[in-house]
Design a protein that fits this description.
alpha+beta; Ribosomal Protein L22, Chain A; 38% helix; flat; rRNA-binding; RNA-binding
């Protein structure tokens, strides 16, 4: 045992754990590139402004991100006891998820591959 007892390892890992409220959506049926257009618009903004931006953004990804942002705000209020007025979007990013591969028949017996991309979206809030 190089690092010590298992309980010590867990205690050290939990001490390094990020205390900022966050919400994560895995396997969202939105490509990373399209999700990043909306995430770039809300990064660094306070939560009320960010919620207004995603509410009136016409992209499909904004509906998914609005729901995720509301979840992160609820986590901050209920789990961490933070005030909604002091919160802002500290980090938001989308990582690449798995790709569903589908086949579209084309002319002369060829098969055309359709890639349906997914992403893992994370929103991290912080207090001012």
């Amino acid at each position: 045992m190089a690092k010590g007892h298992r309980s010590q390892v867990k205690r050290e890992r939990n001490a390094r754990r990020d205390e900022r409220p966050s919400a994560k959506l895995s396997y969202a049926r939105v490509p990373v590139q399209k999700a990043c257009f909306v995430l770039d618009a809300i990064r660094g903004k306070d939560v009320n402004t960010a919620l207004a931006i995603v509410t009136y953004n016409p992209r499909y990804a904004s509906e998914v991100i609005a729901k995720l942002l509301k979840s992160a705000i609820a986590n901050a209020e209920n789990n961490k006891g933070m005030s909604r007025d002091n919160l802002y979007v500290d980090e938001c990013y989308a990582n690449r998820g798995p790709i569903m591969k589908r086949i579209q028949p084309r002319a002369q017996g060829r098969a055309y591959r359709i890639l349906k991309r997914m992403s893992h979206i994370t929103i991290v809030l912080n207090e001012k």
